[in-house]
User: Fold this.
Amino acid sequence: MIVKTIKYFIVLLFLFLLSPAVSAQEANGISEQEVKLAKSVEPDAMPEAAIPHTSSAAVEEMSMEPLPASTTQVSHVAESRDQVVLLIGDSMADGLGARFNDYAVKNGFKFHSIVWYGSTTRDWAIAADLQYQIEKLRPTYIIISLGTNDLGYKDYSRRETAIQTILSRVGNIPYVWIGPLPWKKIKDRTIVDVIRDCTGESRFFDSSSVIASRADGVHPTRQGAALWVDKIVEWMGEPELNANPIEMDKPDFTTRFKHDEKHGMGYHGRR
Assistant:
């Protein structure tokens, strides 16, 4: 009897201890089955970012929008008065110098010219004449007339080196390079492109289309040279064409003129 009582008491005690755990689980509203299901659920995948959709019509409209306006500024046109202009070159500079002197008298600037008959770009690159004249005269603007005696040569890399040497001596001084007139005797005018590639389009006056009367089939007459210079000066005053624009009024007269220096074909330049 006592044994049965003890067994009964143990069963009651076990039930009493078990009841709080069951009550807590029920209180939280979580069943054993739900707990098992919760453990088996995979974590949520990150949502993919929505890709904005642009209609083909909108894309076409966007591509048709005008580009921003160019911010490139036109170069300032310098006044020629009080400038010191230096012309250097081959025999073509002989005729050019006389007309440029007319412009100097008309516009009030100082003009100097150095002529070297038969000279090429390589002659001027080897000789020290250009830097000598720059140091002596202190020009504010330089006009180069070379290339006629380079026509027909095929050593373009050497000519290019010579041209670059000349330009390095000019440095930051504003300048223009006048290309050679057309010459029926020589059809190959590759040197014109070589010079332009070195100077850039806006510092090179291409004389290939200039029609000027010739005294000997090569050199222009005084009238032909005057027409040539008038075209050059007109181009020089255009800021859209010339990187170093300079304004000059056209003279309606001619002047007596003498070059600063004039060297024959036997001259080898300063060393």
Q: What stands out?
A: Residues 93 and 199 are 19 Å apart (CA to CA). The chain has nine helices and eight strands. Residues 1-6, 18-74 have pLDDT under 50 and may be disordered.
